[in-house]
Design a protein that fits this description.
134 residues, alpha+beta, Immunoglobulin-like, three-stranded antiparallel beta sheet, 7 strands
């Protein structure tokens, strides 16, 4: 009986160390420190929020507000996968003449992503976010 109990406890301890801990991000502490800057980017984006969209057909199109069409946009688009951050995908922003950026579907897994665009234009920061399901 004691041997069975000890075996069970040993098995549970072993399984506990195998359990994968899925944090939202590896640098969550630093992200917390940058919160006030992030809030300013959201505030700057409010007047454009209805123009930001993510469309999923045979490709994934991220549509930015037309205001940014002829401007130098420096930043990134993050496809954040809440269920597994190791499957997140990050791309530099490269808008076409219609303020769109197109992504092939190959690297994406089926499921939910949160599309986050963080960028600067003329020293002003912006942040947009939209959910999508592939």
């Amino acid at each position: 009986m004691v041997v069975g109990m000890m075996s069970f406890v040993g098995f549970m301890v072993h399984k506990t160390f195998e359990y994968k801990v899925n944090k939202v991000s590896e640098d969550y502490y630093q992200r917390g420190l940058d919160f006030s800057q992030h809030m300013k980017k959201i505030e700057n984006s409010l007047s454009f929020k209805d123009e930001f969209d993510v469309i999923h057909t045979d490709v994934c199109t991220v549509h930015f507000p037309q205001y940014f069409a002829d401007k130098k946009v420096v930043g990134e688009v993050l496809f954040f996968r809440p269920s597994d951050f190791e499957k997140d995908l990050k791309y530099d922003i490269q808008l076409d003449s219609n303020s769109n950026q197109i992504f092939e579907l190959e690297p994406f897994y089926k499921g939910r992503y949160i599309v986050r665009a963080t960028f600067d234009v003329d020293s002003t920061g912006y942040f947009f976010e939209k959910d999508i399901i592939f």
